[in-house]
């Protein structure tokens, strides 16, 4: 538990995935390109009102532009009532389609606006008014540009902009006398709207890709940490297992001398046992070479620069050395109270003995680093079935300087969980109401998985 980010009381609520889940989604991410062709704008927004916003805006545009368009065409341009109503519907209603399919909606609106420009060339009062695009058609067209900019690719947006300019140029050849031309105005405004909304959409896409990459990187870091911790535990357990294999080899080799008068078949059996034990020990040493290698063929020499350095070659500690560990922590200025049951070290298996020591070591390292001055209690007890390890610390002292992070002897809760899983036990960790933290591990003396095997 060397990374206090995993052991501080706020850890369950401040890990990167938890922060990402609680953080409000940026508005530019809401504007990103929909994943499917018919997906509405803002379909991936986290809140219902955000998902409904495009429909509400489109509805308001239609309800306001439709009567205004009919009124302007009838009163100002003196177009026929039938033409005014038809053009008003054709130029505004497709805006509702723009929420899900803006490109077809643009085609319908452009055709309707072009037909409207042709019709207005024969209107009675077109002189002195805007042509070929009326004020209402310009507003509706720009609203459509917003939908297009948030949805379509850059290539499509450029094509839409160029077609808009081309239609304006063609209509210019049929321009009536005395009108105020709006072809250039719409060309400039539509390009500006497409550029701004397309840029916003691009920012949203970039932020979404960044968030996805961060999520993948976080998962990879967690996986790498887990693999590193498993390799480190395997290196530590090598000494324990190698010791037992060496004892088996010596006992099998010395059996004919310690037990004289042994029959020849029995001698051969002990010789076979010794040979198998030596072969298994050699295989374990080769496996350790792979685990300690840095991937460049450095072999055991990498151990000197690995997480544990030369200390990996030293005998592995156990419950019997927890007293020394606590005393060293107290000398560092951390008030620690130890309750160590007599015989706990003798009752534990080698794997449990080592795991219990490492759990206490990493818990105390975190307390020293991230809760200096906190009252800490360490308890190691055992019964007929389990070794129980409990480390509880209070909040850091009021005037203590807390380190923001740093490396330690392991990988925090990941290392603890792996050690507990190795022995078939359970681990319970979490913050306390007063701001402290609790680590409780149950390490069975008889691994249930081994008994099942």
TrEMBL record:
Pfam family membership, one: HisKA_3
Keyword Transmembrane belongs to the record: yes
Keywords assigned: ATP-binding, Coiled coil, Kinase, Membrane, Nucleotide-binding, Phosphoprotein, Transferase, Transmembrane, Transmembrane helix, Two-component regulatory system
Molecular functions (GO terms): ATP binding; phosphorelay sensor kinase activity; protein dimerization activity
Location of the region described as Disordered in the Swiss-Prot/TrEMBL record: 1-20, 292-313
Feature: compositional bias, Basic and acidic residues: 1-13
EC number(s) stated in the UniProt entry for this protein: 2.7.13.3
Reactions it catalyzes: ATP + protein L-histidine = ADP + protein N-phospho-L-histidine
Residue stretches in coiled coil: 209-236
Listed InterPro entries: HATPase_C_sf, HATPase_dom, Sensor_HK_TwoCompSys, Sig_transdc_His_kin_sub3_dim/P
GO CC, alphabetical: membrane
Domain Signal transduction histidine kinase subgroup 3 dimerisation and phosphoacceptor: start-end pairs: 229-294
Transmembrane segments: 52-74, 80-99, 106-127, 133-150, 157-174, 180-200
Domain Histidine kinase/HSP90-like ATPase span(s) in chain numbering: 355-446
Protein name: histidine kinase
Organism per entry: Streptomyces vinaceus
């Amino acid at each position: 538990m060397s990374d206090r980010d995993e052991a501080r009381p706020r850890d369950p609520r401040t890990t990167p995935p938890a922060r990402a889940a609680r953080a409000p989604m940026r508005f530019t991410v809401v504007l990103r390109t929909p994943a499917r062709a018919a997906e509405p704008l803002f379909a991936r927004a986290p809140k219902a009102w955000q998902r409904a916003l495009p429909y509400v805006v489109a509805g308001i545009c239609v309800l306001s532009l439709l009567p205004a368009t009919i009124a302007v065409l009838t009163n100002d341009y003196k177009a026929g009532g039938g033409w005014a109503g038809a053009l008003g519907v054709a130029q505004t209603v497709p805006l509702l389609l723009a929420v899900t399919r803006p490109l077809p909606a643009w085609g319908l609106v452009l055709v309707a606006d072009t037909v409207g420009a042709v019709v207005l060339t024969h209107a009675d009062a077109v002189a002195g008014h805007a042509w070929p695009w009326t004020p209402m058609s310009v507003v509706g067209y720009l609203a459509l540009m917003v939908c297009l900019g948030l949805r379509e690719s850059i290539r499509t947006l450029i094509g839409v902009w160029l077609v808009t300019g081309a239609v304006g140029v063609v209509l210019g050849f049929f321009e009536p006398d005395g009108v105020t031309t709006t072809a250039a105005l719409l060309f400039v405004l539509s390009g500006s709207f497409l550029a701004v909304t397309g840029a916003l959409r691009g920012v949203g896409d970039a932020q979404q890709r960044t968030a996805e990459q961060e999520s993948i990187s976080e998962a990879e870091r967690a996986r790498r940490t887990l693999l590193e911790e498993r390799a480190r535990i395997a290196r530590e357990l090598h000494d324990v297992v190698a010791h037992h294999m060496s004892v088996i080899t010596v006992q099998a080799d010395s059996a004919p001398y310690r037990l004289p008068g042994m029959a020849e078949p029995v001698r051969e059996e002990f010789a076979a046992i010794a040979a198998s034990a030596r072969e298994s020990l050699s295989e374990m040493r080769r496996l350790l070479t792979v685990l300690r290698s840095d991937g460049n063929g450095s072999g055991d020499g990498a151990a000197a620069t690995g997480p544990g350095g030369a200390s990996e070659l030293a005998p592995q500690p156990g419950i019997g050395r927890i007293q020394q560990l606590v005393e060293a922590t107290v000398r560092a200025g951390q008030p620690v109270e130890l309750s160590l049951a007599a015989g706990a070290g003798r009752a534990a298996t080698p794997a449990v003995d080592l795991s219990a020591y490492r759990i206490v070591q990493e818990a105390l390292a975190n307390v020293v680093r991230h809760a200096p001055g906190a009252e800490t209690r360490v308890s190691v007890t055992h019964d007929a079935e389990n070794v129980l390890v409990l480390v509880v610390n209070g909040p850091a002292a009021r005037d203590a300087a807390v380190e923001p992070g740093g490396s330690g002897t392991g990988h925090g809760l990941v290392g603890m969980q792996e050690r507990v899983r190795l022995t078939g036990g359970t681990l319970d960790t979490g913050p306390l109401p007063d701001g402290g933290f609790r680590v409780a591990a149950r390490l069975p003396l008889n691994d249930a998985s081994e008994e099942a095997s």
